[in-house]
Amino acid sequence: MNDFFQTLSVSPLGEIFVVVLGLIWGSFFNVLILRVPDDKSLMPRSRCPKCMAPIPWYLNVPVFSYAALRGKCRECKAHISIQYPLVEIATAVLFFWLYLHFGLGIRFLSYSILLSLLLVISVIDLYHQIIPDEMSLPGIVIGFVFALLTQDITWSESLLGILLGGGIFLAVAIGYEKMTGREGLGGGDVKLLAMIGAWLGYKSLLPVVIISSALGSIVGLSIMAIQKKDFKSAIPFGPFLALGAVAYLFWGPYLLETIFPQLP
């Protein structure tokens, strides 16, 4: 098995393999995005959300089926959300990017799980403004285990990442609520940062928070200006935390050396 992955890592077949893998998993992630927030079972076969007609396997091919059907259900002609091919393509791109950065092996497996969780959580948060515990809590445990396996960070850095990641946002959330009388950061954001800390270690937390806060501020202010809303408007923060984590995963050493050299 190791020889198989080593062969893929040095051949064009590796690139094809990870892209196809990403498309397939992206299709499954759409199922998670649709069903997890409503506590629905993942087992029943896919159906059109409008007419409930079962979708045969040959019309469930990632991206290609959507293109062939021109974004419409074959039975009722209802519009199919562009989310489906976008999530599939995004997963394939992320997996390909990971492959170029880490090759195939334990690190690819570890970070493909992290990026998959971040992607699914981000889309759910955009739609429902919730971050399901079913994603973040197991992600904390899995991240700590993979920290031991990959040895990119030590177990203590991972544990500190969990404790500080959850603690930082918990303190901010409590302080904001006491000062304003309303909730600013949800418990889901607290658990998500703890999950990121488990995978990337405590050194990632400051860069991730700064990057996500900057992006969130820019997007939030732009939306408020365009839609003429006030500062009380709720904007999901999970996607920005996810973007900060992705930036740190691929450019962490650069960020630490050039922007945050004071971190121990």
Q: What do these coordinates show?
A:
There is one protein chain. The chain has 264 residues and is mainly alpha-helical. Helix 1 crosses helix 2 and helix 6 packs antiparallel against helix 7. It has helices spanning 2-9, 12-35, 64-68, 83-102, 106-128, 133-150, 155-180, 187-200, 205-227, 238-259.
User: How is the biggest beta sheet arranged?
Assistant: none
SS strand fraction: under 5%
Spatial separation of the terminal alpha carbons: 39 Å
The number of distinct β-strands equals: 0
General shape = globular
Task: List the secondary-structure elements in sequence, H or E.
Answer: HHHHHHHHHH
Determine the fraction of residues in helical runs and give it as a percent range: 55-70%
Mean of residue pLDDT values: 83
Regarding quaternary structure, how should these chains be classified? single chain
Low-confidence stretches: 1-5
Count of individual helical segments: 10
Structural class: mainly alpha
Nearest-angstrom radius of gyration?
A: 20 Å
Task: Describe the structure in brief.
The chain is mainly α and 264 residues long. The protein contains ten helices and no strands.
Topology, element by element:
Elements: H1 2-9, H2 12-35, H3 64-68, H4 83-102, H5 106-128, H6 133-150, H7 155-180, H8 187-200, H9 205-227, H10 238-259
Helix pairs in contact: 1-2, 2-4, 2-5, 4-5, 5-6, 5-10, 6-7, 6-8, 7-8, 8-10, 9-10
